[in-house]
Write a structure and sequence with these properties.
Elements lengths: L2 E5 L2 E4 L4 E8 L7 E7 L6 E6 L6 E3 L7 E6 L4 E6 L8 E8 L13 E2 L3 E6 L1
Parallel strand pairs: 2-11
Antiparallel strand pairs: 1-3, 3-8, 4-5, 4-9, 5-6, 7-8, 9-10, 9-11
């Protein structure tokens, strides 16, 4: 059984930084493509970033490009999302997810397993 647990969210002022972590238990982490999504109140869940199983390729939503960085540590079975230059519009619940088949996917339906999310709030 694959389980994902996110952490690292919180309240930060605009322009600040946060690093989210997602620990994956169960399954073969080294074979999983990973993604981060977010959902703001009253809005649909949207893609943020993805990384391939090898860590060699990444993909970002235009809204976070050059501000956010996705990475992974196979030894810790963890994927990270470093968020710099945060803006109030980045406020959302952030979710990590596992994609066992496709790689660098922005469509949430392509992801099989999801965490419970961590809240990120950016004040103006």
């Amino acid at each position: 059984q694959v389980q994902l647990v996110e952490s690292g969210g919180g309240l930060v002022q605009a322009g600040g930084s946060l690093r989210l972590s997602c620990v994956v238990s169960g399954g073969i982490f080294s074979t999983y493509n990973m993604g981060w999504f977010r959902q703001a109140p009253g809005k649909e869940r949207e893609f943020v970033a993805a990384i391939t199983w090898s860590g060699g390729n990444t993909y970002y939503a235009d809204s976070v490009k050059r501000r956010f960085t996705i990475s992974r540590d196979p030894a810790k079975r963890t994927v990270y999302l470093q968020m710099n230059g945060l803006r109030p519009e980045d406020t959302a619940v952030y979710y990590c997810a596992v994609d066992t088949e496709y790689g660098l996917e922005s469509a949430s339906r392509k992801y099989e397993y999801w965490g419970q999310g961590t809240q990120v709030t950016v004040s103006a």
